[in-house]
Specification:
With about 350 residues, the protein is of the alpha/beta class. It is built from twelve helices and ten strands.
């Protein structure tokens, strides 16, 4: 691959090219794979164009980001089944927030459902558990949720645990942000068969993660975000972004786990409209390493009333699989209705 494009970019940005110089140096020293370097270069260009902050701040953010990407490329971090955000030595949580914050038009953003967040605070103080069934749109969703919660609901922002697929703990460009989050790490159903020879190993990993989650629920005072769709929302053929269908077995697993908990577990719907900031590629790709598209704008987040996990239909099917599907559709429709309220 020809990397003259980086040299050309350096010439066009001669007044502020510290990051591009260091990226070129990292390429020359084989500290970063060429594919990652290409993606990182494009990410930088789009980020710089999208944010309204001073160029010097963007340079510093991406110089730090480059160091963290190189570290991941040369010495990959091994995530445990339950990863607790890293703040000692280097504050990954603060870095991730500082990275995402300039992309958000905060004055035009909105947080709905504060009454339900107050309820959640009360449940958590009494050792109750919270599970948030939500849609997922952006690579930066954990940080964006945190940014809108941090002033009025700092405890929820601090304690929130995200169920995360293996992509965000494997992609060297995603890891620096992931290290700043509380994560329950699983292999998504979307990729569990690829490659087929690792399927059993991945299933065993997921079982251990679920056992860890069960322990957290039994301990009490745990709040978990999960996207039952197993991935990010994408636009349809008409270009309209749709909330992806929820997976019935995923919801059932959380419900059964909650029943075995020593503390009550409360389920709430959460709708996110964050697509414009760091959206997914238009097509789902199997190989690791996706290009980044960056935008600037407002985000919208809404929490809904507690879900009655039993009384979700006037007439329930006699077949258990059909009932699980009905429950998943009911919860997904709650999130869709809240999402449609943003438009």
């Amino acid at each position: 691959m020809n990397f003259n494009f980086i040299q050309q970019s350096m010439e066009k940005n001669s007044k502020s090219n510290a990051f591009l110089e260091q990226l070129q140096l990292a390429i020359n020293q084989n500290l970063i794979p060429k594919k990652s370097a290409t993606i990182l270069h494009g990410f930088y260009i789009e980020y710089k164009a999208a944010t309204l902050q001073a160029s010097e701040k963007t340079e510093q953010i991406f110089l730090t980001f480059l160091e963290l990407v190189i570290l991941q490329c040369t010495s990959p971090f091994a995530f445990s089944h339950y990863h607790q955000r890293l703040r000692k030595d280097f504050d990954y949580h603060k870095f991730a927030l500082d990275f995402v914050r300039p992309l958000i038009d905060i004055p035009s953003s909105s947080l709905k459902g504060e009454l339900y967040l107050e309820e959640m605070n009360s449940h958590l103080k009494n050792k109750g558990n919270i599970v948030l069934f939500a849609n997922h749109q952006s690579e930066g969703d954990p940080q964006m949720i945190n940014i809108l919660l941090e002033k009025k609901f700092p405890k929820i922002a601090e304690d929130l645990i995200f169920v995360a697929g293996d992509r965000v703990i494997s992609d060297p460009l995603a890891v620096p942000l992931s290290l700043g989050c509380n994560l329950l790490c699983i292999y998504s159903k979307r990729y569990i068969d690829n490659p087929p020879e690792l399927k059993m190993k991945k299933q065993l990993h997921n079982k251990k993660t679920m056992d860890t989650m069960s322990c957290l629920l039994k301990k009490g005072g745990t709040i978990i975000y999960v996207a039952p769709s197993g991935g990010r929302d994408r636009s349809n053929n008409e270009g309209v972004i749709e909330v992806a269908d929820f997976d019935p077995p995923s919801i059932e697993m959380f419900y059964l786990m909650a029943k075995r908990s020593l503390h009550p577990t409360h389920f709430y719907p959460l709708a996110l409209k964050t697509y414009a900031i760091l959206p997914p590629p238009k097509a789902i790709q199997v190989e690791l390493g996706e290009s980044r598209t960056v935008g600037y704008g407002p985000i919208q987040i809404a929490f809904g009333p507690e879900i009655d996990m039993e009384n979700y239909a006037l007439k329930k099917s006699s077949d258990k699989h059909a009932r699980r599907k009905e429950r998943a559709e009911f919860i997904c429709n709650l999130v869709r209705k809240m999402y449609d309220g943003f438009i």
